[in-house]
Amino acid sequence: MPSRRDPDKTDATPTPFAALAPEMPARPAAKTEPTDATDAAEAMPPLPAAPAADAANDAIDVIGAVDAPDDVPVSERRSRAGARKVIPAAERAVNRPPAVPRTIAAMTAMQDDAANPAAPAASDYGPEIIADEPRPELHIPLRSLVLNAVAMYAIVGWVPSVVLVVAQRAGFSDTVSTATYAVSFLAVGMLGLAMLPLAWRAAFHEPAYDLRLSSLRDLWERRQAGFYRSGRPRRNGWVTASFYIIAGAVFLVGVAAFSVVAARGVAALYLVPFAFLLPILGRVVSAAILVGYLQRGLEARVLPVRAALITGVLLGAGTIIANLILLLVPDVAPAGDATVRATNLSNILIICLIALIVGLLSAWIRWRSRSVYAAVGFRIILFVLQFPV
């Protein structure tokens, strides 16, 4: 409603403050109400243009960076005046409230984590994810790897059997034949222990860490595979079983040696090392050549499960050949040897099947536990139990 006073008369009347402000700006003219619809439309301020419905403007509205200064944080940017703050997904994930435990055990575990920050967080609600081990690098052709492994295995695994057959056919006594058999195991075992590290370094450009006793310490450190929902450590079943296998092999070898000493008396002084311990040395080295050297090299070219199958088949085939050298010639297996005397075809097939299954299981244990000692210990247990390995 317009004022009833005359603005011109009001401006012309002097006031006490006129001297202080001689150049006061003139009062703007009073606004009058519009008389028609046209004047009302002209008096109204223009409405902001509606945003376009295309994908580009939609993306800009979502991001919320329309004409935003560079120094304004992303969380404070808005797509338009009065719009809600647009928070990126990464910032939402960081500022997300912690998970609420659903059980008393989970709540207790989270309290333990708060009391001990160095412990792994139990709010993950499950075992932690362990990344797969990187594949080893093979620096020689795959054909050379296989040929080297087969040649070393043939020297260590087949030469003692051939020497025993030759000694029996030459008419030597059983004592001389057994001593020759044991000495051949010692010779080829030492030769294999000398060749294997050199071949390992040439193929992988690193020392044979898997064949050292320190690998057992690394195996012990890999026992833990994660955590249960309650926060309790979760053990790796294969690694734990490999320790039982190694301990069982050492225990059975000690028990078998003690039983031979108790049964034979003085004769056990030569029988235990020659007819028992040295054949074990030869079998340990021959198995380490395939499940250690060959299987590691195959894992660099093919899948680990396929490498285990190939190594198991080759190990079983090598054991079958070594047994056939003794089985096809009657009465050449010395006392105390794990080879079963057999002359008919059915027994030979059973022995071959057992050797193949044991080879596959040895390679499988090596793959799952990542330990050469576990695979070799498994074969030693079966050798002491008189299996044809």
Shape: elongated
Strand content: under 5%
Indicate the radius of gyration in whole angstroms: 43 Å
State the major sheet.
2 strands, antiparallel
**Helicity level:** 55-70%
Spans of at least 5 consecutive residues with low confidence: 52-67, 119-132, 332-342
Number of helices: 13
Mean pLDDT, to the nearest integer, reads 75
Biggest sheet strand line-up: 1-2
Q: How would you briefly describe this protein structure?
A:
It is built from 13 helices and two strands. The protein has 389 residues and is mostly helical. It has a two-stranded antiparallel sheet.
How are the SSEs ordered, and which strands pair?
Blueprint: H1 7-12, H2 37-43, H3 55-63, H4 89-94, H5 104-115, H6 142-169, H7 174-204, H8 214-221, E1 224-227, E2 233-235, H9 237-264, H10 268-299, H11 304-327, H12 345-369, H13 372-384
Antiparallel strand pairs: 1-2
Question: How would you explain this protein's 3D organization?
Answer:
- There is one protein chain.
- Helix content is 59%, strand content 2%.
- The protein has 13 helices and two strands; from the N terminus they run ααααααααββααααα.
- It has helices at 7-12, 37-43, 55-63, 89-94, 104-115, 142-169, 174-204, 214-221, 237-264, 268-299, 304-327, 345-369, 372-384; strands at 224-227, 233-235.
- It has a two-stranded antiparallel sheet with strand order 1-2.
- A hairpin with a 5-residue loop joins β1 and β2 (233-235).
Which properties best describe this structure?
elongated, single chain, 13 helices, two-stranded antiparallel ribbon, mainly alpha, 389 residues
